[in-house]
Amino acid sequence: MKKIKCSDVGGPCDHAITAETKEEMMQKMWEHYEKTHPEDAEKVKAMPKEEVDKWTAMFNQKWDETPDLTQEEMEEERNVEII
Ligand SMILES: [Zn+2]
Question: Given a cut of 80, is residue 80 above it in pLDDT?
């Protein structure tokens, strides 16, 4: 499991998202975007393919660079979700 912040991938806030896979992260990040930053989400939808490819490459790199959460950090994540 990895944790990436909205701002780590060019987003406007520091909301952290955890996911098991890159696909799940992409999905959750997009849901967060549409819900929290609808205007930015519209901009993303209007981006030319070239820009989208650039963003995807940056996202992939960020995912690869981000270390897996430790057992302790995963426990903390669970506690946060319960609260
Ligand atoms: Zn955000």
Answer: no
Residue 77: predicted pLDDT: 84
**Total structural domains within the chain:** 1
Decide: helix, strand or coil at residue 32: helix
User: Could you tell me the distance, in angstroms and rounded to a whole number, from the CA of residue 13 to the centre of ligand 1?
Assistant: 4
The answer to whether 67 touches 2, Cβ cutoff 8 Å, is yes
Residue of 13, 14, 26 whose CA lies nearest to 57: 26
- The Å distance, Cα 33 to ligand 1 centre, comes to 6
What range does the domain containing 55 cover? 2-82
Structure tokens at 29: 């990040």
List the structure tokens of 25: 């992260």
- The DSSP bridge partners found for residue 18 are 3
